[in-house]
Specification:
It is a single chain. The protein is of the alpha/beta class and 234 residues long. It has helices at residues 2-62, 81-93, 121-131, 149-162, 177-187, 209-229, and strands at residues 73-76, 100-102, 108-112, 117-120, 139-141, 167-173, 194-200. 27% of the residues are buried.
Length: 234
Amino acid sequence: MDIGKSRCHVEAGTIAGMLTMKLLKGFFVKCDLRKTLLWSLAIIVLTLTVIQLGIPILEDFLIIDKQVPHVEALVVMAGSMPERLPAAARLFQEGISRKILLTNDGILGAWSEEKQRNLYRVEWAEFCLTKMQVPEEAVVKLAYSSSGSIYDAMNSRTEILDKGIKSIIIVTSDYHTRRSLWCFERVLRDHPVTIGVYPAKSEVSTSSDCKKFLELCREMIKYVYYIYSYRNIE
């Protein structure tokens, strides 16, 4: 009988120990889950706060509207044609300038039934401007040397100096204005050319906060890269 009682006590103790371990394990799992949820919530709140605070700061820095009442030429930066071309056409119709320079990114575009070949995007840009009541003779397609805003500025400089142009307005997407202005001020720093910049409303400005923040951060990174990479460019 004593042996049986001892076995019962041992088995009862073992079961109690197992139940205790199971309860403790469940408690710690719940604690870990609670901690994970709290950390996740904190990260989400922090991320949303950074986005909400960061967007206006980045917009205030990157977007420049430098007005010039009248200039000899508008310079349209390559890319984002649905944003930039209507803005350039509107400025032209308002009499701000009677000449439009189209920078060239060297990218081949869609097929033209009229020309029976694929047109470069700069050619499509010219075509679109003529459809917006800009005379073909008022549009100058610039040469292509390499892709990038700094090269657009350098190719524009060649035309500006060759034609003796003394004042321009850069037409580009709003978030791209500071980098574009920096490029032109850099390559024309030794020449007496008045430089304005017009921010065309971009798709980025109407996108979701998350997408807008990411695009603005990417543009900020490009701007910093340009300053360090091209600060000594001639």
